[in-house]
Design brief:
With 526 residues, the chain is an all-alpha fold. It has a domain of 230 residues. 81% of the residues lie in helices and 0% in strands. It has 19 helices and no strands. The longest helix is centred in the middle third of the chain and has 37 residues. The mean pLDDT is 83.
Length: 526
């Protein structure tokens, strides 16, 4: 990675980190407020509806990836006419997708209340109309994103300026969370609260619109659309459909199999933790595929291979710290988080541990997934996606139904096992394809890093799970977490030094290079 690419990567990573940390903190605040003010079943409804709405956003699947891939070369060449044509085509596609999303959301709002009935905090069943209005209020955010935001995000991501998207998203998120905190305290209905939160996306759209108009004055979003540039959309569709499906498969299958809003609330809280972990890992991946895409376009194969090797080592080393610590901390955290909530039992160790395993099985292949996005080789991996989804649906449904005879908690565990097996099937396909067709590196290197990740997580978690009593207060939990993360970091670095020494040395060299550059630019700091 050249110095300019490294600087852009650090800039994007820092801003993404700030956004992801904010999102994680805000994400921890919101569910507890929903449970305390409106009840566990209402929170379960919100969890389920959120996943369904995420599925409906798949009407744009492949569009962003295809547009970003098509923009790499014209942006690098400074060809504003080609950039304008692609942006214009993306705008038209997003508008059509937006109308389709609205239609699906309205249809879902009509049907869902009759499938999953919900009681409020007082034990009174919500009317079908109330559920419908709540779903529609949540769907407004997705509609606004299609019509006002998406085309700006595509352009900025392709131009390695994801830090702008992160900063504007953070401002919108802070306002949204502030409303979710204040409005329930004032006695607002849950529908009003979610509607107000959805409308905050307009702030993000206004800021991005003004920034892109100033930063790209020669790009005309109303130019003649170049639809051919987005020809890879349908190939990218399979990849994005699979990713979105896998992220929400547990919630969707649990909803359809159990039809129990309370267990959805339990699932949602444990899933919230893994989403936070994914957000931390995303700090280092947002914008990285545009850098690798630029390296591939430039033809710098040795530079690309070295950068990928270092990135894969970094990703798995950081991942082992996060997942190792989370395997120990997730159940005590959820127990403390739901202290005082008596309508549902949230302390379910089996679900907590399987949730971490599911996240680990998904994230272990993420560096290879990013290379597919960077190279635009979506068509070649379509059957990988089909195999993953088929495994998840068939086994998740079968195991979920089988577990239902032992209770809804066992059903959730069965669903999670199906999702894990689907992730492993996809990882096996990626391991065969990516090294051979994209990176040109030995597949055994990637397999070794994946196995190192799993083994390191087990070494970190086992002593605490077997011999150390979990904390019973938040203060103790925080101190416990600090000690655990330090221990996990030492174990992970030792593991990298033993099994991936060359890549670790290269990573340390990059860190030293970046620190040296920062010191040179800020002589006062010396």
């Amino acid at each position: 990675m050249s110095s300019s690419r490294t600087v852009r990567f650090v800039q994007n990573m820092a801003c993404t980190a700030a956004y992801q940390i904010t999102a994680m903190i805000m994400g921890f605040i919101t569910p507890r407020l929903m449970i305390l003010y409106y009840g566990s079943e209402v929170n379960g409804l919100i969890v389920s509806v959120t996943e369904f709405l995420t599925y409906f956003k798949m009407v744009e699947a492949g569009l962003a990836a295809a547009a970003i891939a098509a923009l790499y070369k014209p942006l690098a060449d400074g060809d504003k006419d080609v950039v304008s044509g692609i942006v214009s085509a993306a705008r038209l596609f997003y508008r059509k997708a937006g109308f389709l999303f609205c239609g699906l959301t309205v249809l879902f709002a009509i049907v869902y209340p009759f499938v999953v009935p919900v009681c409020d905090i007082n034990g009174l069943q919500m009317s079908a109309l109330s559920e419908m209005l709540l779903i529609l209020s949540m769907g407004i955010a997705g509609a606004l994103e299609f019509f006002t935001l998406s085309r700006y995000r595509v352009l900025l991501t392709a131009d390695q300026k994801t830090y702008v998207v992160s900063l504007t998203s953070m401002s919108s998120l802070l306002l949204s969370t502030a409303l979710i905190v204040v409005l329930p305290y004032l006695g607002a209905e849950v529908t009003v609260v979610r509607l107000a939160a959805s409308l905050t996306i307009l702030l993000r759209s206004v800021i991005l619109s003004r920034y892109t108009a100033k930063r790209y004055p020669d790009v005309n979003p109303e130019a003649k659309p170049d639809r051919s540039a987005l020809g890879k959309r349908w190939d990218a569709l399979y990849v994005e459909l699979t990713e979105v499906f896998q992220q929400g498969a547990g919630v969707i299958l649990t909803s359809l199999i159990t039809r129990d809003a309370s267990i959805l609330s339990v699932y949602g809280l444990y899933h919230m933790v893994t989403v936070g972990l994914w957000g931390i890992l995303k700090m280092g991946t947002t914008g990285i595929y545009s850098i690798f895409g630029n390296l591939l376009v430039s033809g710098d194969k040795p530079g690309f291979q070295k950068a990928y090797r270092d990135f894969e080592c970094l990703y798995h080393t950081v991942g082992s710290v996060l997942f190792g610590a989370a395997a120990v901390l997730i159940v005590p955290f959820v127990t403390l988080y739901t202290h005082g909530v008596e309508d549902v039992n949230y302390t379910v160790p089996a679900i907590g541990l399987l949730m971490i395993v599911e996240a680990l099985s998904n994230q272990c292949k993420m560096p290879m997934d990013l290379m597919i996005s960077s190279s635009g080789m979506f068509r070649e991996v379509r059957w990988h996606c089909v195999a993953q989804v088929a495994t998840t649906v068939v086994l998740g449904t079968a195991l979920g139904i089988a577990g239902l005879s032992y209770g809804v908690e066992a059903s959730v565990c069965g669903v999670l096992l199906g999702v894990i097996l689907g992730n492993l099937v996809r990882a096996a396909f990626q391991l065969r394809f990516v090294p051979k067709s994209i990176t040109g590196l030995p597949w055994k290197d990637s397999l070794r890093r994946m196995l190192r990740l799993a083994l390191t997580v087990a070494v970190i978690a086992a002593p605490f799970l077997l011999w150390v009593s979990p904390p019973r207060r938040f203060y103790t939990w925080v101190m416990y977490a600090v000690v655990l993360v330090i221990y996990a970091s030492v174990v992970s670095l030792a593991s990298a030094w033993l099994f991936d020494r060359e890549a670790l040395r290269s990573l340390l060299g990059r860190v030293g290079f970046m620190v040296g550059n920062i010191t040179k630019k800020n002589p006062a700091s010396r």
